[in-house]
């Protein structure tokens, strides 16, 4: 069975929204990192909102939030795989919400991948520039790309819980599906009973009455 035409075509609007979100995140991330490298002293905390928010310029060879610092090349490969997967799946996206969420995830992955590919000490071994410090929330230091990765993952989970699919359709919850399954036989039963009634009426009309039959038999006897 062929899919409907609206579902078979690639959504240009969704792809454009995904690309726009990714470009915005990458630009924001790279501009912020360039400003940090050019203006902040390395390893010195600069208070922004007292102790709640600080800028602390460090270079991270590991994953997001300064984890796994000795596995730079592994995370380069993982970031590249995420980028390729999102690009391949972008043709299936028709929901604007999913386009924006995956665009933010793509932009975050690209932002850190650019650092790993082109920053010192070498290709695929580059150290990511981190500078956002929120000691009240977590001890790790992160950057703009990490922030958008986390935001996109939270929205990802929310879309799954709400039941929004990549094509924009909605998945019924188990409770609503059970209600729909319960209501369907009731409607179908009413339809069948009305149909049976319509069939029975002509049958009754065409069936001779018992009194007429007895009268006919009596007349023949006389």
Tell me what you see in this structure.
By secondary structure, the chain is of the alpha+beta class. 62% of the residues lie in helices and 8% in strands. It has seven helices and four strands; from the N terminus they run ααββααββααα. The protein has helices at 5-8, 12-39, 72-89, 96-118, 144-162, 174-206, 210-221, and strands at 45-47, 54-60, 128-133, 141-142. It has a four-stranded antiparallel β-sheet. Helix 2 runs parallel beside helix 4 (96-118), helix 3 runs antiparallel to helix 4 (96-118) and helix 4 (96-118) runs antiparallel to helix 5 (144-162). The protein is elongated. It starts with a helix and ends with a helix.
Give a short overview.
This protein is an alpha+beta fold and 222 residues long. It is built from 7 helices and 4 strands; from the N terminus they run ααββααββααα.
């Amino acid at each position: 069975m062929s899919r409907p035409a609206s579902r078979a075509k690639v959504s240009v609007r969704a792809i454009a929204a995904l690309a726009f979100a990714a470009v915005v995140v990458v630009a924001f991330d790279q501009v912020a990192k360039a400003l940090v490298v050019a203006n902040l002293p390395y390893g010195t905390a600069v208070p922004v909102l007292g102790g709640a928010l600080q800028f602390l310029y460090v270079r991270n060879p590991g994953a997001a939030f300064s984890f796994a610092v000795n596995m730079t090349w592994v995370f380069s490969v993982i970031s590249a795989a995420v980028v390729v997967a999102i690009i391949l799946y972008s043709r299936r996206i028709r929901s604007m919400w999913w386009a924006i969420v995956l665009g933010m995830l793509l932009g975050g992955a690209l932002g850190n991948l650019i650092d790993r590919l082109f920053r010192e000490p070498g290709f695929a071994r580059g150290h990511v520039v981190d500078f956002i410090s929120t000691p009240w929330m977590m001890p790790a230091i992160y950057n703009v790309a990490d922030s958008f990765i986390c935001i996109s993952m939270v929205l990802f989970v929310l879309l799954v819980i709400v039941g929004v699919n990549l094509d924009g359709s909605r998945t019924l919850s188990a409770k609503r599906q059970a209600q729909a399954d319960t209501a369907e036989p009731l409607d179908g039963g009413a339809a069948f009973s009305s149909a049976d009634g319509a069939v029975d009426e002509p049958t009754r009309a065409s069936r001779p009455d018992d009194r007429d039959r007895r009268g006919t038999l009596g007349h023949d006897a006389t």
